[in-house]
Amino acid sequence: MKKLIAAAALLGAAMALTATAHADAPYYAIIAKGFDHQFWQAVKKGAEDQAKADGVTITFEGPKTEAEIDKQIDILNADFAKKPVGLGFAALDTKAETKALQQYADAKIPIVAFDSGVANDLPVTTCTTDNVAAAAEAAKQLAKAIGDEGEVADEIHDQTSATGLGRRKGFEEEIAKHPKIKLVDTKFANADAKAADDIKAILTAHPNLKGIFASNEGAANGLAIAKKETGSKVIGIGFDSGKKQKDAIMSGLLAGSITQNPVGIGQCAVSSLTKALKGEKLEKVIDTGFYYYTKDNMSDPKIAAVLYD
Amino acid sequence: MSSSEKSHGAQSVSGPKLIELRDIEKRFPGVHALRGVNFDLRAGEVHALMGENGAGKSTLMKILTGVYQPDSGEIIVGGKTVTMPNPRAGQDLGISIIHQELYLMNHLTAAQNIFIGREPRKGLGIFVDNQKLNANAAAIFKRMKIDISPEIEVGGLTVALQQLVEIAKALSFNSKVLIMDEPTSALNETEVAHLFAIIKDLKANGVGIVYITHKMDEVKQIADRITVMRDGQYIDTLPQEDTPISKIISLMVGRELAHASRAEGKVGHEQVLKVSGLNAGKMVKDVSFTLKKGEILGFAGLMGAGRTEVARAIFGADKVQSGEIEIHGKKVKVKSPADAVKQGLAYLSEDRKRFGVVTGLSVRDNVTLPSWSRFTTAGFLMKDREMNKTAAEYVEKLKVKTPSVSQIVRLLSGGNQQKVVISKWLLRDCDVLFFDEPTRGIDVGAKAEIYKLLQSLAEQGKAIVVISSELEEVLRLSHRIIVMCEGRITGELDGKTATQESIMHLATQRQSKAA
Amino acid sequence: MNTTTVSQTDFAKSGMFTVATLQKAVAFAVLLLLVVFFSLMSPVFLSWSNAINIMTATSVNAVLGIACTLVIISAGIDLSVGTLMTFCSIIAGVLSINLGLPLWIGIPGALLSGAAVGACSGAIIAYLKIPPFIVTLGFMRALYGLNIVVTSAKPIYFDDQPKYSLISPDSSISALIPGLGIPNAVFVMVLLAIVAAIVLNRTILGRFIYALGSNEEAVRLSGVNVNIWKVGIYALSGMICGIAGLLLSSRLGSAQPAIGMGYELDAIAATVIGGTSLAGGRGTILGTIIGAFIISILSNGLTVLSVADEWKYVATGFILVTAVYVDMRLKYRG
């Protein structure tokens, strides 16, 4: 029993050391969607850089995976107890978390939504990529690459989230504008290996498939693995970045990808909070932008700055 | 005590018959459990049902409560012949049983336990009406003149109070017949007195009570009539007042059987095992004895006397509080069965299926189990062929009836399973063998074979302890007999001169609990 | 006497194996049925390249299934196989990338770390007598956290060890038989299945796995040091998780810290569908492999048929419950 207590104490001490100490500087709570993907590490970096510039302290937290809405609510509630002066929040669900958010609004703590918005007026602004427009761009690029005709499919990272819905909508609506292109299959997977197995099955079912759109980092990595393992010549376009995806573009497994501006999203979240606290007026939505990148423009400093490993 | 014997005597026997069992027969595969048993219970009487372990008391009570159905015979309740296809039917006829082990839900309250499944409802029958529930329970407690809060969790009550909750539950069914199976086994003197007071009250209210016990003093205190059973047979029903204890015992054990096959063979002089001052758990109190080479030492006693616990403690299966064990004159520490086996000790459990054999494995694997490490190449590959050969040797030597050594042990008969267990210890070179109920669940023919096997093992110089609830078995096998009661050794008898009566006297010699 | 000439066939005839064999037959029938069904429904399903797809998709789950099978036959359970798999792949990354050690240290190091973690959970289960469900549930979560901590939530890429990324997806057999194209991961799975079957049926550890699962108390009372064997069982299971970790991370070219949770349920599903009894004492490796194939064929087949994803889960759930029902029916009959 004594040993157990000692071990618990040690563990407690280790946790205390890693916890961020926020003494006098204003404290913002930043709550992301998860740590599944490198995307969030880039958002975190942007947020931390901006925090340094604004002279504030932040905590950057999130649930384990992007499915754990309940865990995210727990974090929202826990952070409220830490009395932040501002909240940056990437909602996993557009409605489910309204109640937890309301307490911040009631306490006059400004809320900035980032990455995806919420279905209420609580946030002062939303720093986000226009997912529909970004995915439509992917569809345009894919159409161009396959000569504007033939079969295509999409591998979407999530069936229910705003980004998943938005990217699917953007891609499929744009494809519908091309009469000679036919969308033959839509699958959902968020992890590399599972997406790869999915795509291999799609390739089997549709031997004449010309192109595939993969809607996030995991799906795109899976697409690259599937192409490598099957030797398929299908043209792939991904979304987001990450080392594997960048490698795949360099080696030609993927024709190109859409990148958001994750660093910019992180910066926007923190700087918008600072502005809101100063009483500045903000737009309802701040588009943080997106780019289509291929191996030709990856080293372009403007692009390179928003790509992450 | 002697004054209370007189206080409620045979006068109440004249009440109307609540139940009557006539010529009840019941067979199980290989066992004729009940043969022509008669029994009746009158309103307002306590009828003691007595007999040795295995006499058929529990089977009879299971028939009376609808758990078993008789093969033939009549059950008459309230003057009408009835059938009880299930326990629920027994309950509906007003027959309740209080088991030796209580069946209560520890985390529920007393009231919830009493009315489980029959809770008063409210609000369209969706909600339990707790107020009414507790009031109903309180009313029963009041009738019993006991002070238990209906809202208390029964897990926190003493065993005595839990038993009262069980009785209250029985009364809540308006039971006219109450069967109590060894109700005082976990109670102290005051609690027993309290229970008896309640029994007296129940009698006065016309409830009939079947009282199963081994304890003579209790019978003398509260019973009106006594029925004795032996080997599934009805022996006699007698008024308690006119029957001395010695008469009851002799009826229970029957006439002395011919001792043609009493223990023979020379016991060696070499002391193999010496146990002194052993204390373990609640059931082993200051136990000391010795065991010699070539000797069969019988351990007799009633169920719950602590004999199994002694064996398990010596074998390292249960924790020991104090005591010393010497093997071949050397003091040893036995902390686990693994230690015990290293010292040459073996324990053959009464519950073979749970503790003896691994039923899912083959005869071969079971015989070789304690010696598996001997049958490996390079320390990990099993030499199955060699194991087959060795197992086959033992199968032949002990005459195990099995189609092959690959037969799964589950499919063998009880006697053959026992031989498999014996084989495994012989193969492991164990020379001190504890046999706990060696013939339980084994049919009569195979019993003789097991006896012969044990005797020949002793002649070969093994030291053997036989724990048995069958007096005949103990007398037949043992050179020496140790009798236990309530965790203590109450006496030691010579196997040649011991009788069933002398054993029973020692086995019922309780220490006064007030002391 | 016929008892002295017992052969392996007698062994297979004996009761315990009859039930297992029967259920394996049921599982195999389901597998065949699925193959026939999908072949009829889709002309492209029954092709060599799709067969390779299915085998590849099966390999990691089957390997984890083997780990689970050993533990479950011994009447235990291991919920930590998924995150332990990830932990091992991270150890491989730390050793061979972060520390720059050669692969012949990195790979055994990963396997040994799997065995060590398995031994730890085994020791806690055996000596502290905490139920395996609780202990491995704890390990599942703790390892997830450790995986994130060790990597700072960043994947470890095996670019500096290009050979590593070839281990799993490369097809060494194609050098001998060109065009066969079966990736190494599949061979590792098959090889491991054979070794595990030998361990189960031919070694003392395997014998104890069945014995403990059948009646632990009887084994203890036979004078066996049960605890040591339990530690051994979980250590072996942990090492097999390490193999799964190598296969997955090699395929992905990276050790991904956030994955792993959820894999244990797929592995347990494969084990149970394959006829291993959650009550212990019964089960086979072949059954588990069949179970893993049923899951991935279902997934692949429904994808090929362009059936919506959600139905995939409905179908596996249905098969899982059916399998357990069959298991119970056979048990009460046998």
Write structural notes for this entry.
The complex is a heterotrimer of chains A (309), B (515) and C (334). In chain A, 46% of the residues lie in helices and 20% in strands. Chain A is built from eleven helices and twelve strands. In chain A, strands 2-1-3-4-5-11 form a six-stranded parallel beta sheet, with helices on both faces. In chain A, helix 8 links the parallel strand 8 and strand 9. The N and C termini of chain A lie far apart (45 Å). In chain B, helix 9 (245-253) packs across helix 18. Chain B folds into four domains: 2-94 and 175-253, 3-Layer(aba) Sandwich (Rossmann fold); 105-174, no CATH class; 260-344 and 431-509, 3-Layer(aba) Sandwich (Rossmann fold), CATH 3.40.50; 354-428, no CATH class. Residues 1-12 and 256-260 of chain B have low confidence and may be disordered. Chain B has 515 residues and is an alpha/beta fold. Chain B is globular, with a radius of gyration of 26 Å. Chain C is mainly alpha-helical and 334 residues long. Chain C has a single domain (24-32, 43-333), classed as ABC transporter involved in vitamin B12 uptake, BtuC, CATH 1.10.3470. Chain C contains 14 helices and two strands, in the order ααααααβαααααβααα. Chain C has helices spanning 8-13, 15-41, 48-73, 81-98, 103-127, 132-151, 164-167, 173-176, 184-202, 204-221, 226-252, 263-273, 285-304, 309-333; strands at residues 156-157, 254-255. Chain C is globular. The B-C interface holds B 315, 317, 336-338, 340-342, 347, 349, 354-362, 364-365, 369-370, 372-373, 375-376, 379-382, 384, 388-389, 391-392, 395-396, 402-408, 410-411, 424, 428 and C 1-4, 6, 10-11, 13-16, 202-208, 210-211, 213-215, 217-225, 281-282.
Overall geometry of chain B comes to globular
Please name the two chains that share the biggest interface, counting residues whose Cβ lies under 8 Å from a Cβ on the partner chain. Answer: B-C, 49 and 34 residues
**Widest β-sheet, arrangement of strands of chain C:** 1-2
Catalogue the unreliable spans of chain C.
Answer: 1-17
Total count of domains of chain C = 1
Here the CATH topology of the largest domain in chain B equals Rossmann fold
Average pLDDT of chain C works out at 87
